[in-house]
Amino acid sequence: MPAKPKLATVWLGGCSGCHMSFLDLDERLIELAALADVCYSPIADVKHFPEGVDITLVEGAVANTDHLRDIRTIRGRTKILVAFGDCAVTGNVTALRNLYGLDEVLHRAYNELSITGTTPSLEGIVPRLLDRVLRVQDVVAVDHFLPGCPPSAEAIYEFVATLLGGETPSREGRRFGA
Amino acid sequence: MSVRTLEVDGKMITALEGQTIFSAAWDSGIHIPRLCHLGGLSDVGACRLCLVEIEGQKRLQPSCMTKVAEDMVVRTNTPALRAHRRLIVELLLAERNHVCSVCVLNGACELQDLAAQLGVDHVRLRPQYPKLEVDLSHDRFGLDHNRCILCTRCVRVCDEVEGAHTWDVAGRGKNSRVITDLGEPWGESASCTSCGKCVQVCPTGALFSKGKTVADMRKDRGFLRYIVTAREKKLWIA
Amino acid sequence: MTAETLRQTRDAELERRKGIKNRIACCTVAGCESAGSGEVRAALEREAAAQGRAGEVEVRGTGCMGWCSRGPLVRCSSNDTIYAEVTPADAPALVSGDAGRFEGRALTTEHPFYAGQRRLILRNSGHADPERIADYIAQGGYQGLLKAVTAMTPPDIVAEVKRSRLRGRGGAGYPTGLKWELVARHPSTVSYVVCNADEGDPGAFMNRSVLEGDPHRVLEGMAIAGRAAGAEQGYIYARGESPLAIERIRTAIEQARREGLLGSRIFDSNFQFQIDLRIGAGAYVCGEETALIKSIEGKRGQPAPRPPYPPESGLWGHPTLINNVETFANIPAIIENGGDWFASIGTASSPGTKVFAVAGRVQRTGLVEVPIGTTLRTILSDICGGVPEGYEFKAAQTGGPAGGCIPAPFLDLPMDYDSLTRIGTMMGSGGLIVMDTSTCMVDVARFFMEFCMDESCGKCIPCRAGTVQMHSILERITRGEGSEADFWMLEELSALLREASLCGLGMAAPNPVLSTMRHFRGEYEAHVREHHCPAGHCPIHASEEVHS
Q1: Where does residue C422 rank: exposed (0-12), middle (13-18), buried (19+ CB within 10 A)?
Q2: C548 pLDDT exceeds 80?
Q3: C546 reaches A (C-beta below 8 A)
Q4: Which residues 99-128 on chain A approach chain C with CB closer than 8 angstroms?
Q5: What pLDDT is stored for residue C202 in this prediction?
Q6: Touching check for C306 and chain B: CB below 8 Å?
Q7: What is the CATH number of domain B3-77?
Q8: Do B129 and A99 touch (CB under 8 A)?
Q9: Which CATH topology does B83-233 take?
Q10: How far apart are CA B2 and CA C512, in angstroms?
Q11: Where do the structural domains in chain C lie, given as residue ranges?
Q12: Cα B222 versus chain centre, distance
């Protein structure tokens, strides 16, 4: 029996809602496990993104330097890359800060609204935020898009099952937002 | 009134003389996409989504403004037209800040529906992220320019149905904005009757009722048919 | 005015001139005005008085004599010579007739710049003062109107214009006679004549110069159109940015009214015709006829879908005959000399002459009028003296933001409507910008796209949002940040704008991109693949990092 396709899910600049929706697959997760080997995911305890992944679902936009580095690694190690959910597809809420610019947003958050009154500036503790939030397609080639905030569990199952079946999911009927 | 017979997408349909292609097709179950057209309001042919191919004509024509003619052969859904429509929706989504997930009209928005229907699952163009105002000066309603697609339905319903002409368009090109009166905040408009017709005809969440939360709002256009029928047939029926 | 008084006015003016030995005509069109022709004219008038020659030397203003880059230009009738770069210090020599001072600045009609031209539209330039109706009449002005009113029926006039095969000079080249016929045949009792003087292409000033230099020619053409179309009211829609043209039109309308050449019972007939001026606020799109109509009506200047076309339903829903300034300026001579005479000039499919505003990297720039079908090489090399020493010709841009470029291999192309369309550009209203090899064609496309983006009215989505996206892609390419996908997107957007835009502005906006991509594809590819601008124009800074 040939090895099962390797499926990964990653979480960049998003709220993890898409992964919550993924977990809403409930008992169908077991069916999915029969079709694919979930080799990397925020819900699995794996340290490094493996080589030779067949399908990766990417939740979230590219918002900081770690995301930027990771998405390039992921692209290099993945056959079929899926922008998973509105943040990955459109930037969505994560990219709302693009209207204002990074400095204005940080100033508002740390200087005006927090008790510390200063924007933290220590390097090397958390990754540096990018000036502008990028969609996944702005950084690497994306093979398929599954919009939704979040995409419903049904949509996720049908989409992933179609891909695992070697077919191309239909583009009609996909919805941004709810 | 005499009847015209024409072919739309390979199907013979009949229409009344003077009827538009859009309306005749709709009556025959062929729903051509549109955003600026709304039955009961005048047509402007601006959104270009309802463009159709008419045999023998070099240019695509807006079906909302083109009258039927005997033996006309119309195609409403060719691959080229579908590609144009998808790109128009992509242009709109990239133009302003249409963040569906945090919109009062999430789930009931005509632009969102259209994207889904046309298979626009992502936007290939760069989002422009313009910094736009939200006018909350009116007691009951709000205007969010981030979600406005400049279809001018609000302008037309206010002028043609309510008779107030509170709304108009200022600026040009990408700097076009719908304005109330001469650009005063909506709440200070002297001409606005607060009837709310503009809010109901707005296809997106650009015009909304205050107090509605995300995905909480639904728009009711029943009033328009009621008023237009009353005007045309002198009958107060819906 | 009657036929008799028109003749008398003409004779009186010619008689008056017999006593004048030298008419010194200073260009009073905006280009020379800004170079100081006003001071020159004042100095000449002072000098004529000082030398006691006020009786035999007459100082006048006149229309554009063409070689604008060497203005102020002044013409002396005594030796039929045009003097270039005249300063007030030259006044004594001009008045006394001392030619020795003008080495290298005296241009006779044999000079290649003038010898190669054929001036019909600009024929009064250097001869008549635009602010004097008597000058226009002395040059044979209003003879066409006289003939049209007293000796021709409206169908005769339409037939004559059709016979001339004149095509609209606004850019699209629609047969003028057919347009006139549509309005003339319309059963409506009310119709209008509109002169589109909303010239807005960057670098183009043909119409402005005609209005500033010979406004009565346009009024006469419009009145003849009014007679042909059964219209009693005409409008000139001019740009607010051309104050001098506006002033000259106002003066000319006032004079024509006073002389009874506008108003009621023109030439003692039942024909009546009024012209009013409408001033635009400077939106390029108002040159599009349906937007122009909206603007005259006092509404927001936005185009409406056509059909219906203006000849069927225009101003306030009435049939409306809209022509460009230069089109109307051709009419008087067509009526006077006949359509066959006009059709014998130029090419069979595009008769007549065309005025080009030549700008850019060429020796002699300014207004050039040549028979249609003259090759680009003749215009640029023979008339305009070619590109200056040390530069190499790259391309010429015609048709403004709606047009395209003509690269070197097409220098022998005849400049007519159909030939230009065939190679992906258009005649347009007559702008002709010459570029040398230091010009980056991607940047040229970006420039014109920026223009269209700024001038899009915002009504239809393809133009409003599409020009923004095309501009941002072009800008990215000029920064060296373009990708292969950008080519596809440019082509896809171009197709959308061409096929789905509401009016000509959006439909034509991709033309400069498509034209430069067609003739200079390699330049685009160098920007994208090698991050290199072959013309050395674009400041590309190589960068590996994603621009975040």
Answers
A1: exposed
A2: no
A3: yes
A4: none
A5: 87
A6: no
A7: 3.10.20.740
A8: yes
A9: Alpha-Beta Plaits (3.30.70)
A10: 47
A11: 17-115, 139-343, 353-435, 441-529
A12: 15
Backbone torsions φ then ψ of B122, nearest 5 degrees: -160, 170
Cα-Cα-Cα-Cα dihedral of C330, C334, C336, C339, to 10°? 180
Q: What is the pLDDT of residue C54?
A: 86
**Residues constituting chain C:** 548
Q: Do B46 and C304 touch (CB under 8 A)?
A: no
Q: Which residues contact A94 (CB under 8 A, 6 or more apart)?
A: A13, A14, A60, A61, A63, A87, A133
Residues 6 or more apart whose Cβ sits within 8 Å of residue C262:
C219, C223, C253, C256, C273, C274, C275
Pairing between strand C81-83 and C106-107?
A: antiparallel
C189 part of contact set with chain A, CB < 8 Å: no
- Give the CA radius of gyration of chain A: 17
Q: How far apart, in whole angstroms, are the C-alpha atoms of residue A76 and residue A81?
A: 10
Q: Is the peptide bond before A150 cis (omega within 30 degrees of 0)?
A: yes
What is residue C545's predicted lDDT score, i.e. its pLDDT? 44
CA distance A100 to chain B (A): 7
What count of CB pairs under 8 Å joins A to B? 78
Residue of A nearest to B133 (CA): A99
Tell me if chain B has a CB within 8 Å of the CB of A34.
no
Fold of C139-343: Rossmann fold (3.40.50)
Residues from chain B that touch C469, judged by Cβ atoms under 8 A, are: 91, 94, 125-126
Contact C465 B171 (CB under 8 A): no
pLDDT in tens, C512-547: 999 999 999 999 999 999 999 999 999 886 554 444
Neighbouring chains of A at 3+ CB pairs under 8 Å are: B, C
Cβ of C545 under 8 Å from any chain A Cβ? no
Residue C464 to residue B36: CA distance in whole angstroms: 15
Q: Which residues contact C532 (CB under 8 A, 6 or more apart)?
A: C480, C526, C540
CATH topology of domain A6-98+128-164: Rossmann fold (3.40.50)
Alpha-carbon distance C459 to C448, whole Å?
20
Using the Cβ of C458 and the Cβ atoms of chain B, whether some distance falls under 8 Å is answered with yes
Contacts of B157 (CB under 8 A, 6+ apart): B38, B41, B197, B198, B201, B224
pTM of the model: 0.94
At residue B221, φ and ψ (nearest 5 deg) are: -105, 10
CA–CA dist B150, C80 (Å, integer): 60
Count Cβ neighbours within 10 Å for each residue of B128-147 and write b for 16 or more, e otherwise.
bbeeeeebeebeebbbbbbb
Task: Please say if the pLDDT value at position B1 is more than 80.
Answer: no
Secondary structure (3-state) at A136:
helix
Model ipTM? Answer: 0.96
Q: Give A97→chain B minimum CA distance, Å.
A: 9
Q: A145 and B122: CB-CB below 8 Å?
A: yes
Which residues in chain C touch residue B95, judged by CB atoms under 8 angstroms apart?
464-465, 468
Count Cβ neighbours within 10 Å for each residue of C137-146 and write b for 16 or more, e otherwise. Answer: bbbebbbbbb
Instruction: Chain C: list its partners (3+ Cβ pairs within 8 Å).
Output: A, B
Chain A residue whose CA is closest to C548: A132
Judging contacts by C-beta atoms under 8 Å, the chain A residues touching residue B120 are: 171
Per-residue pLDDT tens digits of chain A, which is 178 residues long:
568 999 999 999 999 999 999 999 999 999 999 999 999 999 888 999 999 999 999 999 999 999 999 999 999 999 999 999 999 999 999 999 999 999 999 999 999 998 888 888 777 888 999 999 999 999 999 999 999 999 999 999 999 999 999 999 999 999 999 7
The matching CATH number, chosen from 3.30.420.40, 3.50.50.60, 1.20.1440.230, 1.25.40.10, for C441-529 is 1.20.1440.230
Query: Would you identify the CATH topology of the domain C17-115?
Result: Glutaredoxin (3.40.30)
CATH architecture observed for domain C353-435:
Roll (3.10)
